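By way of example, we now present a protein record of this kind:
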Amino acid sequence: MKFKDLEACPFCGCDEFYEKQQTRGTIHFRIRFDGNETDNTDMYDSLITKYSGRAYCESCQQFLGNYINDTVGKAADRQCLKNSLQSESKEVQDFFKKALKDHDTYTKNVKKLSRQRSDHIGEDKR
């Protein structure tokens, strides 16, 4: 699934998301000696902004993915699948629930074996 395919947050249905950005620099805010504000439309032009693309739901703050890279996060992708399965038959729902559970178990086992192997390799170097 691509980020551009999302129409709303798969967790809560909110239709807005936000991106965390980092900005640095100096702003020149101009004021007249009589106390009136002058034209400051360009005051942010000198700032340097780093765009992460990491999108979060405005309502529930769940991570949704990266809209710049057009990718959906794993949890959001799984939630989209769960949401789409709600209209399916009980047998189809059970099949996909088992498949997701099996995938999680497989992933955990691979990570565990990888850690054990790296620990074993670390012992050989000693």
In short: The first strand starts at residue 17 and ends at 24.
